[in-house]
Amino acid sequence: MASFLKTYQGPLSINEGFSAGNMTKAVKLIKKHLERKLGKLYEIDTEEFDNTFGSQVGIKYGIGDTAKAIRFNWEKSGKSTDIASVDIWDNSPNSKPALHIPTKDVSIVRVLPELVKAINTMAKGDIAPTNESVEIKDFPVDMIIEAKISVDGQTFKSQKDAVIHLTKLGMTPEQIVDKTGIKLAAVKFHANTALSVMGGVPETVKVSKSDSAITQQIEELDKVSVEVMYQDLEDLVNMVVADVQPSLIVAGPPGTGKTHTVKKILEDKGMQRGNQWKLIKGQTSPFGLYASLFLNRDKLIVFDDTDAIWKDKVAVNLLKAALDSDDERLISWNSGKTYSPDYPPYEIAEFGGNEAEAQIAYFAAEQKLPNEFLFNGRIIFLSNLGRNELDSAVKNRSYVIDINLTPDDVIRRIKSIIPDFKINGKKVSKTDQNEALGALEEMVESNPKYISIRTFIQFLKTKASGSPRWKDLAMRYTS
User: Fold this and answer.
1) Does domain 133-193 have CATH number 1.10.10.60?
2) Is-contact 289 318, C-beta < 8 A?
3) What is the spatial distance between Cα 242 and Cα 256, in angstroms, rounded to a whole number?
4) Alpha carbon 83 to chain centroid distance?
5) pLDDT in tens, 288-304
6) 217-333+371-402 sits in which CATH class?
7) What's the average model confidence in pLDDT over 64-79?
């Protein structure tokens, strides 16, 4: 699955075959990518159905604020499968699909741009690969003269047929050039059919999500997914603590337990806050960041909700220096707020102790720092920004993990951390916890809006208040 994720970050090189169990995970990754182009996709149903192509299973999503819907289908039989087809609805997800797109022999990841095009246009026919078409006038005449060609023992009547065949297998133009010897420009010219879009295929839905065993399988997969996500987070924090890599970025919406989880991991490892790690929250100016890095240059720093630093080029450059791959991570700041450590404006004896203690004492007195220092610490960023909003150079120097939870994921995560739940440092009764969680589940079922772990805390506080109307208050006024 890691190779699948990489297809969104670099060159496409994937032979798509997922076990039936992993298929729902694959679809969720594709969904996440499509949402950047189409808007929010809302899961409608999981269906088992028959059509002229056989028995299939599909996950259906509504598209943004339109009446359109999309369903990813795979064949029921076999232990390993591809996404066999995609169906698109234009007006109502309960009617016959408007479009049917066979994808079994096509790399679904390669053709995501064409899939977006099909959804936007709702037009039948072949769709040329996005950014692959080249004008005929750009070719010498001999490039478009057809001749038979053999590839892996199969003979094609023309270069075009061979290129289209290999494109549908998921090969890049460069890979096709290596395999066939056809010139790159000709490959790009001939690769003019990535998706064949046909009219919708009549079908008979056999089982819906509400009463299907498929639902249980998907819920199991989701449960594992959430557990694995937070286990990955714990492992990555441990690697940063061990100085395997200097930094970790934990991104995702607020209220997903990022801060709680990281603090608990550090506490469980016996790390003392202040002595071994430092928590910095809220607004931080570039010089404030420089000062924080200097004052904690040998510690682990956790930056929480300091997202303004990602918008400031000076702050980002400081982070790039602090997290550089060089053996010596030198950070510099030259201004009236700094001095050369070779010519300190103080006597060490004046402040007592050693040079490091004198520098800190002088900063406390005069708010001035050395104009350069070596950073030997590690950093964990807890950010509410999305991965795409973070600086690429800092990301390349870090581990990056997205904590994105559905409402069901949030409920599952709350259940896993309830035994440790406290409000203002005090344990809350098990009865209050269970009733607050029950009310939250009730709200999600009746109104599946976005919730977070903070939503649960609000419910729990309202329940613990003793008000007999706590549930109504929580549901009405908790955002």
Assistant:
1) yes
2) yes
3) 25
4) 21
5) 999 999 999 999 999 99
6) alpha beta
7) 77
